[in-house]
Task: structure prediction
Amino acid sequence: MSDQIRVGEDAIVHGDDRGPATEIAPDLAYRRLVMVNVAFFGVRGARDWVLIDAGIAGTATLIKAAAEERYGAGARPSAILLTHGHFDHVGALETLLKDWDVPVYAHPLEHPYLDGTTSYPPPDPTVGGGLMAAMSPLYPRGPIDVKQWLRPLSEAGVPGMPGWQWLHTPGHTPGHVSLWMPATRTLIAGDAFITTKQESAYAVAVQKPELHGPPMYYTPDWSSAHASVVKLSQLAPNLVLAGHGQPMHGESMLAALHLLARDFDAIAVPKHGRYVNDRRPA
Result:
């Protein structure tokens, strides 16, 4: 079976493109930064808003410009939320914190990669799929050290995002989380599943509407990754923003997500690689 699920163009969310960030709901916008998305929660002009993930290194100026265009001059968030701590989700974090000095929330299992303690396991370039995978040994594995600002996510909910829930969706990393708003069935999936073929530089550039499992070259626990996709599929989201690729919505997106959950081994798990032999039966 293919390692991708093609989704119709009708599944792409064509949001309001005013300014650097694209609004896909009144309180949710995103900014694509080369290969990864960051999200902004909060209606345009709000005083209290939240940044979700922090892009790749060198993009702090772009993130701040998008924030100021959406929320006003000198805007800074009430908090930064991390789906996980991989280099392409925390690359601008330390630079932003020097200016913003705000709390950073992540799952406790992700803290060792964010407090200077532990590096992530090595990526696996042998999974194939394209240049992004082949180059993965060059990507930073951390750890970064933001313990001064680091806070654990708790059962109390998602800081600064009333009505939202955080869901532990491990596999891609031990402390990976996704964010869920039941009232609107909106899902911020992080890298639990993505909507582009992240292993291929061409696919990352072109952004064809496809559903994939988490990036293969940086996912060490495929059993947990499968369980996480099943969990998110069962929510039946209507609007999805992933860490990589375009936002999607509607019935064709949901059908593709159900197919990914059902046939995860054939679609998402690489045929060979460093971590494939550790795959446990679901």
